[in-house]
Amino acid sequence: VQLVDSGGGLVQPGGSLRLSCAASGFTFSGYFMSWYRQAPGKAREQVASISSSGSNTDYSDSVKGRFTISRDNARNTVYLQMAMLKPEDTAVYCCHVRVRGTHYWGQGTQVTVSS
Fold it and tell me: Tens of pLDDT along 55-72?
């Protein structure tokens, strides 16, 4: 199983970014996927999740209404569209999947929201 995160960067408050997570090594379309983030000195936080078909999504209260998780099962990729970014969204973001009881994480991509 391999998860490769990309798309992070420096953005001004109020801006947008789209993160991608390219998956391989498992049957992507059969698995629930999540995005997590971790800011310095803080615990890791699950921010969004999506069902295997993409029909069901869930968000943490801190990002609800601003972030959108989606997936393309033909491309084995999950996305996190982030809008109205705030300085408190600054963190390393990574995707996650649990396959046959084992947790797998992407390497993470840094998102910095600053003027």
Answer: 999 999 999 999 999 999
